[in-house]
Write a structure and sequence with these properties.
This protein is of the alpha+beta class and 364 residues long. The chain is 43% helix and 11% strand. Helix 2 packs antiparallel against helix 3, helix 6 packs across helix 10 and helix 7 packs antiparallel against helix 9. The chain has 13 helices and 8 strands. The chain has 3 domains: 48 residues, no CATH class; 77 residues, DNA polymerase, domain 1 (Orthogonal Bundle); 191 residues, hpI Integrase, Chain A, CATH 1.10.443.10. The protein has a 3-stranded antiparallel β-sheet, with helices on one face.
Length: 364
Amino acid sequence: MGRKKVAGLINRKGIWHIDKVVRGRRICESTGESDIEKAEGYLARRIEQIRQATVYGVRPKRNWRLAATKHLNEATKASIKRDAELLKVLDPFIGHLPLEAVHMGTLQAYIEDRKKAGWKKRTINYGLQVVRRILNLAAGEWMDDQGLTWIEHAPKIKLLQEDDKQEPYPISWEEQLRLFNQLPPYLVKMALFKVNTGCRDQEVCKLRWEWEVPVPELDTSVFIIPRNIVKNKKDRLVVLNKIASAVINEMRGVHPEYVFTYKGKPLSRMYNRAWRKARLIANLPQVRVHDLKHTSGRRLRAAGVSFEDRQDLLGHVSGRITTHYSQAELEKLIDAANMVCGDESRKSPALVILRKRNIPVVVS
């Protein structure tokens, strides 16, 4: 007589799958096994896990990789692609571990490996923050059919002290010219827009035409970036000075959806190989993409723009509703934004950048 198959196992394309009701709960999942005996063993373990959870409140063992996958599938944050990149780096170190075994001790190998790879502590901390977020979800929000959280409690994930953090480096007009002359055309347009609006990297890369709002009374337009793209989760008003406006007009008709693209597609970030190559040729290896935002803020301050107006122009958090303005208020912001437009015939505003000791002072 042939071997009797255990009820609840179905063979689909050579792999055994479970379809069985256990203690009132239906299990529908793959065993990942092609061998019937191994599949039966897997089913027996799953039945015992459910019995332990139902009768004794024992949580089933779940590994880190399963939790990371759940996070990527369910998260709605704007930076989820960044999370995916970091989780890919983390996987070789903790992917196979049960959630209960993920803590600062088991994360040391990841930390040391990333230090050797030249990562700044702030970048390493981004990965640790993702780990902390997933563990907190597993301990507080993710529950199974028995009403048990995935883990009983989340271990404390301590971030590294960021003592190697690079200071902001706002660039002078001369440095801007050197850098932008080395950038490819698509990055020049994005960089010009960024340094004249103070937008963040993702606000530039994801800028859509549908967010443009005409202001016919002032013969211009503005952009209102939705809060899910903005770091502080507030709708962001982007005021265009004459340079930013010229960039926008040049990009009209290039792509039906996104303002800035490369080979017909939006960029995920401005910091790429072309940026790194350009800054080396321009002898500005320290300049990051985010320094263009710092440059915009310094130039506004040097031009005498008030603190409140700088907040609104740079999209910083304030107590005001920053997307609702009268015509007079909006006209004032546009005038302020135009005060940082570089002009070859005059070097205004005068921007004095004090560098660290032993580095020459640059006056433009």
